[in-house]
């Protein structure tokens, strides 16, 4: 199907379908029930940028910025950019040790419910079989449909398959290579790997340097091809789609995708950042951060096991499993979901550090998952002195929680109270559940600790619900299950 025919197909779908390309129609979208219940997913940044494994997944941009550390590193290790450019990493990206089934088993052990590989990053290299461009893993590099292999392996194990597209930023991502003698030079045309390499705009400018219709149509078709060929349950967008020029095409894509979900017979969703979508038309996402308070709407945070990079780089600065688990508990208590990123090596192996963190999370969820999965928020998200900083890019420093920090979730007739840092003396005081509390007037029939046989001692007073489990130690959150009448 040529470009014109594909665009006609998109328009025909919108004309015939339930969802139209306007905000009023798109706000009829409902968040899928499975998504709200899943709570924990895996994000995967893996691509050509995993070959140099230096700086970050933005290597393709930064290696062309004169004077940057990536530029100097490239000169030292690979030579001049006009002799060895980013495209020359493609044959080195062979994924020779990639096994989708091994990844799927790991993610299942980690307790994830959905998995979201990056299908195309800013560099413009597609991780799947595509009719839009020859620069994809089926025709180059591994010579395999990596995304297709992942979909089959994940779905076989009951993991919900999702995709992420970061193509929007490719409009300017390779532009700095035109500023000196490199392999990024005119002439270039649609379909070329580096095309269009336009001047990089101010990232806060929502109106300047608008992409051309040719580029936007190419972007739309690439996104719709992913939908048609791989039927993802969630489609994630990175940040630059909030540029004003994208809006008509974004609405077309959303209508097309939501209509496809109706055709397939299962609900789908879109993730977005900033205000790229009208509120209520998709699921908001907070990059490397979260909300300080409970939200009445479902939301997601995406963050990574490493603080410095989304992809594998040598000497990544890793978070601990304990701090990620605490973030998961905090996020879920506020009606959110955690999408946690790992960065595999270019050969397809998962670094030991990433693997160990995932398995540690999985061990905790094996014991405490009933307080996470399929739960909903309570009247308040929690209590305690620790204030969580709100907004994106706020998770660079570990939060210092205390034994007074409690987070709540609820399911059926049970209320779960997670103690973020279990006290050495084994005594926990929950003020929100005290006698006469404005938050709770019910009857507590029983209290037990998930994963522990011994019954704790508990009593309510006008000061607090006090639960004591002397002798118990834990470096991760401890969850009390309160059976209510």
From TrEMBL:
Residues 402-470 form the Alpha-L-fucosidase C-terminal domain. One of its GO terms (molecular function) is alpha-L-fucosidase activity. One of its GO terms (biological process) is fucose metabolic process. It comes from the Bacteria. One of its GO terms (cellular component) is lysosome. Residues 8-370 form the Glycoside hydrolase family 29 N-terminal domain. Gene3D superfamilies: Glycosidases (3.20.20.80), Golgi alpha-mannosidase II (2.60.40.1180). Keywords: Glycosidase, Hydrolase, Signal. Signal peptide: none annotated. The keyword Iron-sulfur does not apply. InterPro entries: FUC_metazoa-typ, Fucosidase_C, GH, Glyco_hydro_29, Glyco_hydro_29_N, Glyco_hydro_b. Its EC number is 3.2.1.51. The keyword Nuclease does not apply. It holds the Pfam family Alpha_L_fucos. Alpha-L-fucosidase is responsible for hydrolyzing the alpha-1,6-linked fucose joined to the reducing-end N-acetylglucosamine of the carbohydrate moieties of glycoproteins. Belongs to the glycosyl hydrolase 29 family. This is alpha-L-fucosidase. It comes from Paenibacillus sp. AN1007.
């Amino acid at each position: 199907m040529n470009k014109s025919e594909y665009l006609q197909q998109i328009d025909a779908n919108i004309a015939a379908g339930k969802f139209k390309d306007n905000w009023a129609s798109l706000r009829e979208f409902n968040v899928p029930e499975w998504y709200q219940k899943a709570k924990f997913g895996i994000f995967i940044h893996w691509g050509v940028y995993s070959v140099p494994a230096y700086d970050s997944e933005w290597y393709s941009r930064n290696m062309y910025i004169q004077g940057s550390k990536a530029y100097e590193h490239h000169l030292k290790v690979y030579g001049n950019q006009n002799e060895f450019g980013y495209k020359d990493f493609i044959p080195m990206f062979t994924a020779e040790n990639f096994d989708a089934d091994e990844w799927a088993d790991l993610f299942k052990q980690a307790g994830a419910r959905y998995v979201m590989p990056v299908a195309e990053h800013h560099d413009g290299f597609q991780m799947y079989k595509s009719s839009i461009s020859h620069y994809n893993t089926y025709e180059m590099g591994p010579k395999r449909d990596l995304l297709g292999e992942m979909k089959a392996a994940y779905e076989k194990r009951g993991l919900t398959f999702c995709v992420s597209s970061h193509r929007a930023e490719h409009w300017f991502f390779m532009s700095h290579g035109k500023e000196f003698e490199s392999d990024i030079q005119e002439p270039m045309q649609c379909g070329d790997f580096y095309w269009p390499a336009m001047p990089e705009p101010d990232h806060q400018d929502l109106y300047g340097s608008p992409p051309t219709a040719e580029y936007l149509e190419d972007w739309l078709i690439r996104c719709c091809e992913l939908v048609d060929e791989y039927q993802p349950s969630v489609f994630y967008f990175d940040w630059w789609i909030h540029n004003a020029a994208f809006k008509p095409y974004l609405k077309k894509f959303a209508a097309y995708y939501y209509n496809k979900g109706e055709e397939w017979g299962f609900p789908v969703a879109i993730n977005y950042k900033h205000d790229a979508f009208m509120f209520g038309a998709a699921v908001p996402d907070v990059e490397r951060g979260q909300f300080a308070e409970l939200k009445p709407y479902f939301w997601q945070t995406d963050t990574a096991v490493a603080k410095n990079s989304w992809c594998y780089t040598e000497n990544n600065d890793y978070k601990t499993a304990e701090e990620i688990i605490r973030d998961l508990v905090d996020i879920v208590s506020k009606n959110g979901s955690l999408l946690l990123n790992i960065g595999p090596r270019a050969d397809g192996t998962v670094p030991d550090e990433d693997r160990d963190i995932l398995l540690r999370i999985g061990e905790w969820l094996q014991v405490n998952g009933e307080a996470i999965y399929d739960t909903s928020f309570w009247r308040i998200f929690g209590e305690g002195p620790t204030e969580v900083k709100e907004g994106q890019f706020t998770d660079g420093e570990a939060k210092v929680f205390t034994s007074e920090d409690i987070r709540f979730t609820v399911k059926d007739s049970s209320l779960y109270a997670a103690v973020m840092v279990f006290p050495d003396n084994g005594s926990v005081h929950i003020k929100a559940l005290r006698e006469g509390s404005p938050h709770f007037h019910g009857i507590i029939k029983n209290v037990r600790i998930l994963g522990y046989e011994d019954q704790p001692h508990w009593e309510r007073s006008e000061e607090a619900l006090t639960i004591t489990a002397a002798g118990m130690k834990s470096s991760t959150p401890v969850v009390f299950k309160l059976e209510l009448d």
